[in-house]
C-alpha cells in the first residue's frame, strides 16, 4: 500500500443518515489509498505520545499488553502516530492493516482524517480474522454495510480511560457499551481493549480484539 495522503474533502456519508461530526469539514477532492505498515518492533514505548493540535491531552500513557507490538520508533510508533490523522496513523500500525483496507474500501479515509476529536475502537488483523473468510469478503464488497459497521466503531468525542466506561453513541447511530476500569476494558461484553489510549492528531484510539457489529 502507498502512504495515505493528508486529509482532503469528503462527501456526506450514508445517504439515509445524518452523521453529524461536530467540527468535520470539507476541503479539496480526490480518493485515498492505504499506506504500507511500518516494520514491526517488539519493544514498548517509554513515554506517551502527545496529540496533535486541536486534540485533547491524554490523561495517561497508552496501556495494554498489545502495546508492546507497536513499533518503538518511526511513523508507526506512538510518537509517530500522534503526528498524523487517524486513518493515516492506522496505516502505519502493523496490527491494523485489515482495518485500513476496510476503511479504504468504504471510502472513509478522508472522513476519518478530517474529523475532529473522535474515538476509534480499532479492530486488529486478528479481530477481522475471527470472521469467516466468505463473510468478510462479502462485507468488504458491500460498501453500505461496511460503512455501517466501520462507523459503529467511531464515537464523536475523545474517550480517555477515565471516561471509557458507560454507553457511547457512535457515528453509525447505535450505542457501544464499555465496562471495566484501570487498564482492563471490554466493549459490548466481548471485545477486549488490547492497547488503549493511543493518540493521533485528531483521535484517541483503543485497539480491540473483536470487530463490533451494530444492532440489526
Key features?
216 residues, single chain, alpha+beta, 7-stranded mixed sheet, disordered N terminus
Would you mind describing this structure in some detail?
The chain has 216 residues and is α+β, with helices and mostly antiparallel strands. Helices cover 23% and strands 18% of the residues. It contains 7 helices and 7 strands, in the order H-H-H-H-E-H-H-H-E-E-E-E-E-E. The chain has a 7-stranded mixed beta sheet. Strand 4 (175-181) and strand 5 (184-187) form a beta hairpin. Helix 3 packs across helix 7. The chain is globular, with a radius of gyration of 16 Å. Mean pLDDT is 80; it is low at 1-59.
The number of helices is: 7
Shape designation: globular
- Tell me the strand order in the biggest sheet: 2-1-7-6-5-4-3
Main β-sheet description:
7 strands, mixed
Distance between the termini: 33 Å
**Rg:** 16 Å
Q: Find the structural class using helix and strand composition.
A: alpha+beta
| Number of DSSP E strands | 7
Report the sheet-strand fraction: 15-25%
Which H/E pattern describes the elements?
HHHHEHHHEEEEEE
Query: How much helix, percentage-wise, in residues?
Result: 10-25%
Low-confidence stretches: 1-59
Amino acid at each position: 500500500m502507498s502512504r495515505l495522503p493528508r486529509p482532503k474533502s469528503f462527501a456526506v456519508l450514508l445517504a439515509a443518515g445524518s452523521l453529524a461530526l461536530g467540527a468535520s469539514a470539507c476541503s479539496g477532492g480526490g480518493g485515498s489509498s492505504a499506506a504500507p505498515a511500518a516494520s514491526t518492533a517488539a519493544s514498548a514505548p517509554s513515554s506517551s505520545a502527545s496529540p496533535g493540535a486541536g486534540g485533547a491531552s491524554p490523561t495517561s500513557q497508552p496501556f495494554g499488553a498489545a502495546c508492546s507490538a507497536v513499533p518503538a520508533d518511526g511513523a508507526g510508533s506512538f510518537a509517530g502516530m500522534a503526528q498524523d490523522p487517524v486513518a493515516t496513523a492506522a496505516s502505519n500500525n502493523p496490527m491494523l492493516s485489515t482495518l485500513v483496507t476496510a476503511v479504504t474500501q468504504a471510502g472513509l479515509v478522508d472522513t476519518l482524517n478530517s474529523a475532529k476529536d473522535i474515538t476509534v475502537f480499532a479492530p486488529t488483523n486478528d479481530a477481522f480474522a475471527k470472521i469467516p473468510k466468505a463473510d468478510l469478503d462479502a462485507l468488504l464488497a458491500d460498501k453500505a454495510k461496511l460503512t455501517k459497521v466501520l462507523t459503529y466503531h467511531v464515537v464523536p468525542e475523545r474517550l480517555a480511560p477515565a471516561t471509557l466506561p458507560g454507553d457511547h453513541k457512535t457515528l453509525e447511530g447505535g450505542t457501544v457499551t464499555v465496562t471495566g476500569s484501570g487498564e482492563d476494558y471490554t466493549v459490548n461484553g466481548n471485545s477486549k481493549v488490547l492497547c488503549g489510549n493511543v493518540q493521533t492528531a485528531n483521535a484517541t484510539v483503543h485497539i480491540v480484539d473483536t470487530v463490533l457489529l451494530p444492532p440489526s
